[in-house]
Amino acid sequence: KLGILLMVAFVSISIVGAIGFYYLKSTNDSLNIMYEERLVPLELMVENRSYINRINGSLLEMMLTTDNSKNQQLKNMINDRLGKLDKNVAEVERHALDAKGTELYQKAKTSQQKYTDSIKAVIALAEQNKNEDAFALYNKSASPAADACTDDLRNLSTYYNDLSKKMNADTTVEGDKAMQ
């Protein structure tokens, strides 16, 4: 009888351990997905919004100076940040996106391209020290394009944030099940 009782206890403990391990692994997988597929793209979108703000600051500074070497230095900083924008967009594209995420991503990518195109003409005018014309063009096209791009990046970031919150809630439920 004691042997049977020990066998039943061993089987019961094994079942409880296996269930706990399953839920622990499920929670770990969810956390890895949240980091890789949600938080990394979210971080990249926030970085891109920061780059756009810094590019705009450099553009405005470029329109205030008539020093050609300073203009070239600012243009180099702008081009460096544009390269980082493109790199981040390519990195986000590598991550798994659902249908809505893909739609928001494509919209952000398109608005970023419009922004990039709009600032090229502003840079060209500022390099020629046609600063009034550059500023007028900046206000007409580059600034609205920057706002649209920033809004689209914010929408994509918000979507990823909401997905992460939902996944966190689901993980919490799974964790609670494992503890019962």
Please describe what this structure looks like.
The chain is mainly α. It is built from 4 helices and no strands. The radius of gyration is 26 Å and the shape is rod-shaped. The two termini are 29 Å apart.
Question: In terms of topology, how is this protein built?
Answer:
Layout: H1 2-64, H2 68-94, H3 99-127, H4 131-179
Helix pairs in contact: 1-2, 1-4, 2-3, 3-4
* Helical content class: over 70%
Average the pLDDT over all residues and give the rounded result.
Answer: 86
Give the oligomeric state. Answer: single chain
Biggest sheet architecture: none
The count of β-strands is 0
Strand content: under 5%
Order of secondary-structure elements: HHHH
Q: What's the tally of helices?
A: 4
**CA radius of gyration:** 26 Å
Structural class: mainly alpha
The residue ranges in which pLDDT falls below 50 over 5 or more consecutive positions are none
End-to-end span in angstroms? 29 Å
| Molecular shape | rod-shaped
